[in-house]
Amino acid sequence: MAVTDEAIQKLKQMINTGQLRPGDRLPREPELAAMLNLSRNSLREAVKALSLINVLDVRQGDGTYVTSLDPGLLVDAMAFVVDFHNDDSVLQFLEVRRILEPAATAMAATRMTDAQAAELTKVLDELPPDPSVEELVANDQEFHRRIVDGSGNPVLSSLVESLSSRTHRARIWRGVTQGSAVERTLAEHRAICQAIAQHQPEVAHAWATVHIAGVEQWLRQSLRDAEPRPGEGP
């Protein structure tokens, strides 16, 4: 199990046992790291990940709190970041998304007006210079939504939107755990946007395929890494 996953699992256990309840403030970082027998760095990464999925609320100058979600919802949310490694259903959604979304992107390159393409560029320009993972994923969702809407096919748009929502958490987790994910996503978005603005459907299709395949490749590797090595586990 990855160190960050181990830290999350230990925090999850504290909620399961009632040591942490909704609204509680976490002990100071050095104290909590010692309690859980974790390095402060791994604890910090776990807190960052859990804040992105709204399990923890980091308040600058005040401390870190468990959100007001009831214990069952908190545990369900925390289970995702560890248990998704053992569930390939997200991978299946990504496989279908890789088939459909490049087609929608190619259609958008032929059907979006220059004004719509300019608005798409504005979506990317709204990101701050050093975006957080949460800001990037929210921007990513809006960017892809506008593209599939620009395909002019509401049935295809609805299908892709449904597939995209099923992979939202996986995209957040990739941003947390893969250091190059933010830069790669920004560069690929710019390339897709340029192909649409220049009305190049084949180029737009190719870049959309590369973009989605990158997430799929990362998830496949994560699943392989999570498999027990010989002599480990059952």
From TrEMBL:
<dbReference type="InterPro" id="IPR008920">
    <property type="entry name" value="TF_FadR/GntR_C"/>
</dbReference>
<dbReference type="Pfam" id="PF00392">
    <property type="entry name" value="GntR"/>
</dbReference>
<dbReference type="InterPro" id="IPR000524">
    <property type="entry name" value="Tscrpt_reg_HTH_GntR"/>
</dbReference>
<protein>
    <submittedName>
        <fullName>GntR family transcriptional regulator</fullName>
    </submittedName>
</protein>
<feature type="domain" description="HTH gntR-type">
    <location>
        <begin position="1"/>
        <end position="69"/>
    </location>
</feature>
<dbReference type="Pfam" id="PF07729">
    <property type="entry name" value="FCD"/>
</dbReference>
<dbReference type="InterPro" id="IPR036390">
    <property type="entry name" value="WH_DNA-bd_sf"/>
</dbReference>
<dbReference type="GO" id="GO:0003677">
    <property type="term" value="F:DNA binding"/>
</dbReference>
<dbReference type="InterPro" id="IPR036388">
    <property type="entry name" value="WH-like_DNA-bd_sf"/>
</dbReference>
<keyword id="KW-0238">DNA-binding</keyword>
<dbReference type="InterPro" id="IPR011711">
    <property type="entry name" value="GntR_C"/>
</dbReference>
<keyword id="KW-0805">Transcription regulation</keyword>
<keyword id="KW-0804">Transcription</keyword>
<dbReference type="GO" id="GO:0003700">
    <property type="term" value="F:DNA-binding transcription factor activity"/>
</dbReference>
